[in-house]
Amino acid sequence: MTPMTRILLPAVALLLGTGTALAFPHGGNRADTDGDGAVSKEEMRQMRVQMFDRMDADGDGYVTDEEMDTHRKKMEGRHEKMRQRMQEKRDAWVDKLDADNDGRISRDEMADAPFPFFDKADTDGDGKLTRDEMKAMRDKRRGMDKP
User: Fold this and answer.
1) CA distance 50 to 46
2) What is the pLDDT of residues 99-124, one digit of tens each?
3) CA–CA gap between residue 86 and residue 79 (Å, rounded)
4) Domain boundaries, the chain
């Protein structure tokens, strides 16, 4: 076993064994392929197969040190892009909330900021969100409101 394999195999094993992270990446439920709201062992197995297939660049049925390293680098690039997007969102959020432009957000600025999500979700305009209104907004944001 090469030194790279000794390092990467435990990492891959940990990743493959971490069901929640695979099943619910970024809070979603990509592994729940039958849409029943739960992830079965078979659905988790399919996630593992898909991950393996992404790593097995040459399609020979085996993942080499080089393929794992390439996959890791690709994932690091995605994580860096995600980190940058999150930083941009944070900066935009601070800009929106920092009413006096002092570079800080006060308790009053946070409390008094507009509620665009709430206002969009409150479809009957009564100033309250029902479970149905919250579910409809969640579904809309996830693109599940389409027929």
Assistant:
1) 6
2) 998 888 888 998 888 888 888 899 99
3) 10
4) 1-78, 98-142
